[in-house]
Please model this.
Amino acid sequence: MTFSKEQWRMVMALLMVAVLSTIFLGVTNMLTRAPIAEAERQALMDALMQVLPKHDNDPIQDTRQITLPKHKQATTFYLSRNQDRSINAIAWETIAPDGYNGSIRILMAVRPDGSLNAVRITYHQETPGLGDGIMNLHWLDAFVGKSLTNAHWTVKKDGGDFDQFTGATITPRAVVKAIKKGLEMFAREHSHLLENKKQKVKESNDALR
Amino acid sequence: MHCGSGTEEKVSDSKGEIFANGFWHNNAIFAQLLGMCPLLGVTTSAENGFWMGAATLLALLGSNLVVSLVRDFIPSSVRIPAYITIIAAFVSMIGMVMNAWMHEMYLILGLFIPLIVVNCAILGRAEAFASKNTPVNSLVDALAMGSGFTFALVLLGGIREILGQGTCFGFNILGDSYPDVLMFILPPGAFIALGFILAGVNIINRRMAAKKEQQALQTTQIPITLETQS
Model:
């Protein structure tokens, strides 16, 4: 099969457009890769600073990767240490898969005694004006100091301790549930998480459920 | 795919006329009703509308310029895939740049940034204008169309933000006692506010036309065509 002159022109024109576009995209990717990583690191840093207590280390460097049971990917745990290297809190991102509009990502920091130090929402797509009340710091402050033993982990409508919002119960319900699950996971795994050695802990394969 | 084709056969060479046409008479939102998806999707606040419009403006400038530069080399039978590739490349680059230096806004606009690729207003300009005009005129057209689009997004975003939260660009306008009309932040509010804006635009256009007729000036036909969005 041979191409006519006209067909060759078409092929070459499309090929040139594709090649040039690829080159420009590649260059842009090279130029923005480092700034994007830096922006993401900064965003994570800002969030960690808000949830962790006073610490004397760099939590972004001081991490443990642990693959939790029933998870495919490893979760990164950020450690916060006192001056004497003892851990005073551990932070990680948990996901509430059942938000009103997609997943909600929650950064939670837990003290060694199993109580929450602070909680922040790092990503959500909830309805502005309704579900996005979960971003409200006043609402998030209700979690400070709460643990599995000193709180009822549902929204008030369901007989628990945490406020729902007018017109939006699904979103706070999902967040409360996810944080509770996070605390339960912490209770099961805290021996691994809090082991006070420097090297990273290997995967925990124990079927603890 | 007939994205705005045929609206632009005769174009004046005057930069002012090209601009007026792109910004108002043939405005992507008010006249062509193109680009409805980002318009209704991200305009919960004036600021979101502004940055969405700015990203679209940049993509338009890039695609109009390049399409105009290569207009003599692309055989017409493969022009649409070529244009789409060019537009997609620009949009991806803008997305990466926003992700790097405007990280928070990038997260807010999210999916709507890559979706600029299929904003019919952009392919429409490549097809209807840039493929037939000089690079300079194409840039003027892109600037006009893009700023007209941004204007529409900021207008709708501003109205929804003021009515829904009592603020504009984050500044408190109506005071703390204002009872937020939540509906305007929600999707129905976008449609309702857009309806009123379009009604207002039609009133203004009709008044302008009547004035021109009264003055017995030669009226240039306002090319309003309803397009189907692909």
